[in-house]
Amino acid sequence: MKNILILGVLIASAIAQISAQTITTESGWKNDFNSYPNSLRVVMTNDPSCPGCLEMVSNQIAIYENVHGCGLNSSIQYFFNWTKVFTTTTYSDAQIREGQFQDPTLQGRYHHYYDSTQVISDKIQDMLGLVDPSGAGGVYTGWHTLLFYEPGITWGNTINPPFPTFWMHKLDTIYNADPLLYYDSATVALNFNIIACAATSVDETSAFDKFSIFPIPSDGKNLKISINVNGRNNRLVIVDIMDRIIFDEKINSATTFDLPAKLNSGTYIVSFIEGNHTITSRKIVITE
């Protein structure tokens, strides 16, 4: 099956879903993307024969499947857009990568495509305001990019996909790429957890009743956390911007407590976890 939908027009041989996983629609990548309007969608566009690309994707997968985050939730969807940038790249390369990157939960969250003529990559390039430094119009495209789309974003009646909630790249400035958005795993981990946990949390009112932090803002001193739970297998986890665990403690009853040590200035993710599911996460910024 080789297809792509742009402005409602089916263009044959432009892109192929490598194998039928959970999506078998004939309307192409656009409709596949829009099939999950209530999910966080992660779009990774890379050449399947590019060593740097594979290093970047492997790093991302490790972040997404971090047990302290929300990546294992079945409502989060991952789109691997393997685009042909190098002339030696083949369909077989993309098939190999599909075999390499498989959904560990077997829930069909991983969707692989081969963009042989860079149709989607060009649209991503245009949407992000990138340029083709070769001047050849399609030799270098919106590859080596990572896009996060929060729930509620859909691809409407436009040529290009919608602008992402957050994105990073591994491109040179000759692509007109923002150097401040150059790929950094800590920044990716922080933003992924913020968006992913928000996308998969329970009703905000009930979550707030169970979990609150005060005072906010804070200088890191006398920071109190209130938990309203009864039962076992509840945890409170705090990670820093480098995804390092700062605090991890079991909470079995309603309690209010001070953090055992002052948090240094910086950004943290505080997550309340019931069993294996992150109920809600909050970003807190500590200032001096």
Mind explaining what this structure looks like?
The protein is of the alpha+beta class and about 290 residues long. The chain has two domains: about 5-195, 3-Layer(aba) Sandwich (Glutaredoxin); about 200-285, Sandwich (Immunoglobulin-like), CATH 2.60.40. About 20% of the residues lie in helices and about 30% in strands. Strands 3-6-5-4-7-8 form a six-stranded mixed β-sheet. The protein has a four-stranded antiparallel β-sheet with strand order 12-11-14-15. The longest helix has 16 residues, at about 185-200. The radius of gyration is 21 Å and the shape is elongated. About 40% of the residues are buried. Residues about 1-15, about 20-25 and about 200-210 have low confidence and may be disordered.
Number of strands: 15
Cα shape: elongated
Name the helicity range.
10-25%
- Whole-angstrom Rg: 21 Å
Tell me, rounded to a whole number, the average pLDDT: 76
Give me the number of helical elements.
Answer: 6
For this structure, the CATH topology of the largest domain is: Glutaredoxin
Count up the domains: 2
Q: Architecture of the largest domain in CATH?
A: 3-Layer(aba) Sandwich
Distance between the termini: 57 Å
- N to C succession of SSEs: EEEHEHEHEHEEHHEEEEEEE
Largest sheet: 6 strands, mixed
Question: What is the structural class?
Answer: alpha+beta
Write the layout of secondary structure elements.
Elements: E1 5-6, E2 9-10, E3 16-17, H1 29-34, E4 41-46, H2 51-64, E5 77-83, H3 91-100, E6 110-115, H4 119-128, E7 145-149, E8 166-169, H5 185-200, H6 204-210, E9 211-214, E10 224-230, E11 234-240, E12 245-250, E13 253-258, E14 266-274, E15 277-286
Helix pairs in contact: 2-5
